[in-house]
Amino acid sequence: MGMRVTTGMAMNTYRYNLQLSTSNKTNSMNKVLSHRQFDSFSANPSSALQAWRVRRAMADNASYQKNNNDTYSRFSIASATMGLIKTELEKAGTEADIRGSSDSTASARIELGKILKDTGDSVIQAMNSAKYGDHFVFSGDDEMNAPFSWDGDKLLYRGVNVNAGLVANPADPKNIPSWAKDEDGNVVGLRQEADLPAGMPESSEDAGEQAWIDYYKADKAALEDGTARPTIPAAPAPDWAKDENGNQITLELENKVPEGMPTSSTNDVEQAWIDYFTDQKKAADDPNYTAVYPKPSDPPGAAWGEPDKYGVPEKAKDVDETHDAYNRAWAAYYLDQADVQRLEKLNGAYENVDLGMGLQEDENGKLIDGTAFDRSLPGIQMLGYGIDQDGDPKNIVMIMRRLGEIFSGCDSETGVFSKNEEENKALREEADRLMNKLKDATNNTNRAYTDIDTKAHYLKENQSRLKMQGDYLQEERANLEDVDLADAITEFSWDYYCYSAALKVGTQLLSQSLIDYMN
Questions:
Q1: Which of 12, 227, 339, 389 is at 20 to 30 A from 134, Cα to Cα?
Q2: How far is CA 491 from CA 44, 309, 460, in A?
Q3: pLDDT, tens digit, 9 for 90 and up, residues 230-259
Q4: How many other CB atoms are found less than 10 A from the CB of residue 425?
Q5: Are 353 and 71 in contact (CB under 8 A)?
Q6: Could you report the per-residue pLDDT of 31-69, keeping only the tens digit for each?
Q7: Any alpha helices (H) in 195-313, and if so which ranges?
Q8: Is pTM, for the whole model, over 0.85?
Q9: DSSP 3-state of 455
Q10: In this structure, are residues 307 and 284 in contact, taking their beta carbons and an 8 Å threshold?
Q11: CA gap 157, 136 in Å, rounded
Q12: Can you name the residues that pair with 374 across neighbouring β-strands?
């Protein structure tokens, strides 16, 4: 006897199958609409994990491409700017070599001076006008402010004098005035010297007068050497050997400043030595006076307070023109040395960006070379800074400016540097020296241009590599996540057909069940 299938049993089975068909139809329809193989991690954990890794690599690649494109734009602008500057400098250098060195074209030196000055100004303008959006390309790690500016005749890079290092160190023996040193280079002291009577002749035909001349010379030597003094001559004393009261002049030792010491100087270091010896003489002449003026070669030390990170004592920042030469000389030196350190720091400024090269640090937390790209472009790396051993500027613009001053001061007809023979010789030597250094500075700028152009080419190639890598990652993501559209449509068609068939079966099932119920 067969088992009777009730309406409830048939409906439960039908309801389960209909829900399954509906779910299959919905899932296949979503695949067609979204083009994705799965919508949740649980649907396909293995593929989902791989897809997550690929998508993270895609996000990194997009960041690398953005950084690379931004950096490439900056270096392209820098390369174009440096190319123009290179052309201008080479042209100016050729003009200087032809017109400045040859006496046959000496009359054109004044015009050459103007050309050199104008070229230097145009170089600074070009460096300042190189911008990427609102950012100044040649400002190093501070791109919001123009790199170069003028303060009178001083060229500043980010507010610091590019000729830093020019101020003399008062403690350096080579900066002590020659008149203040002996043959061995040691600082001299006060001299003790006796002055011969004013008006005493070098010699005389009169035997009596000659006796007095010899006496005073011998007496002077005896006093200065500390030996026995000579006997006074028996002959009557001449008029020049008497004082205003008619008494015989007696020689006495006097404290004297070093021989050759000027009364004043425009150089603060030399003036400090003048003030020092003047104070020493005052103390030697007056037993009630104590010398207070410090030796210029001795640094102020702790008296000026704690130095800052650049070595500038606290009180050095308060020194102005109202202070004495010692304070001015040391304050100027401290501040100048601070500028030297600032320029070195600015020259070494860096701004690393991640361009997909690894970005890795060593055990000390220092970035490993080659794993990041430095996009910083300090302008003084291209133009130079500081002072060389001759006291000449290293900055190419300042070299050109100084040459321009020398040539502009030449005679318009003869081209001579000065009508004074000694000064003319000195200026010619300086001009020749600076023209050689102009060539070296130009070569340095050309090397900087080559370096920038090479890096720009690398960035262009790196952009192509990153794009190719991004395309590969996109393809890999598509293989993991995307469906084959033809297969998805076919699957959807079949699931939709099954769903439709299930609905038709349901209609027939409901009709038969109702008849069975009525019977």
A1: 339
A2: 18, 74, 46
A3: 999 999 999 999 998 889 999 999 999 999
A4: 12
A5: yes
A6: 666 666 766 666 667 777 787 788 898 899 999 999 999
A7: 207-225, 268-285
A8: no
A9: helix
A10: no
A11: 13
A12: 352
